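Fold sample X.
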Amino acid sequence: MANSYLIATPRRTAAITGLQIATLIGSLSRSVELLTADIEREEALAGMRDLADPAYPVLARSLRKRRENIGTTIAMLENLRVPNDHAVDTTGHEEA
């Protein structure tokens, strides 16, 4: 009986992980595009785009927050693909 398990090498594992991260980033980017379209639709239906207005649509506000969270996730995933010396700081803190 042949061994059905593949030998996992660090290079192969890194390549697979990199591909999975790239696929996830692509999927999340498409979600951001869909959320943006939904936000624009809600704003058009309500006739307002001012977040400070108390009558701003609750759904649009919720979708904006969701889009922001997905954007943060995309930035963190992109950091996983970049070597550590070129990584982008997503914490918002500046180094002295």
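Fold sample Y, listed below.
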Amino acid sequence: MNQAVPTLSASTAARGVTVKPCSWRTEALNKIVELAALPENWDGYGSRRIQSAAQHQTTNLIEKLSQTALPAPQIFPVPGGGLQLEWQTEQSGAELEILPDGSMQYLIEDASHEMREGTASELEVTRLVRWLEAQETSIATF
């Protein structure tokens, strides 16, 4: 079951954040296509190919995230057929895992190495974007 991908650009614009034209969108979309072409057992441990629901959800996320002030995410395949987006700053980090069925989970870590994780609904993805854009250093602000 696919979850709705939030409209992030509206929240970004409403907060007065100036968004430059995205320089990383095309590269990120190409990376998704590249990873989707990985064969079965791509990691040597029996992992499944990237599933179409995960590919579709990740593509939709990149389209939306590229309209925000976020830097380019690193994109990785996940054993089992999913994809993962990662952002790392000097003070914090965030991971958004898109599961094979298109559902999402997040993990954030702040400057004191406190972590929070959960299911990434539309609200959590929007909160994650705001937290990353503000370059927060504490989970307490998430």
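Sample Y note: The chain has one domain: 8-141.
Also: Strands lie at 74-78, 82-88, 93-98, 104-109, 115-119.
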